[in-house]
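Q&A FORM
Asked by: J.P.
Topic: structure of DUF5069 domain-containing protein

PROVIDED:
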Amino acid sequence: MKSTPISAYEKTEGMLYFARMLDKIRKQASGDLRDDFQGNLGKGFDLRCTKYVRVDYDALRSRVLEGGDDKEILHWCYDCGRKLDENDILIWNEFIRKVGYRDFASESLSQRKIESGLGDRNEIETMLEYFEVDEGRA
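REPLIED BY: S.T.
REPLY: Here is the structure written out as tokens.
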């Protein structure tokens, strides 16, 4: 049975979401990524994350498939793109943690909740919270 990616709350050297993006790449390559995740690879948060560290998604995907752990690949991003400092990581984490809460993604979050049968779950206020519930972790 195909699976969902790991939680977006998993951190790589303090950075949220990065590990999830790499997990999706690995699971897709091994045929283990659930079908409903296939169409968004390299888009959405994946694209925002790669743009934030200033690396190309396809280059990152190739690097992930060469092997190495998440920390090694993050450092590769720093070498090829830009090195994030503590403040950059704080800004990224606060952004990603709050997406969907009264912002540009609120409508998308609301639609996803309805499509998933979670439309009445008012406590789900962000995309990361939605992922946790929709993927069965919360």
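FOLLOW-UP: The CA atoms of residues 75 and 83 lie 8 Å apart.
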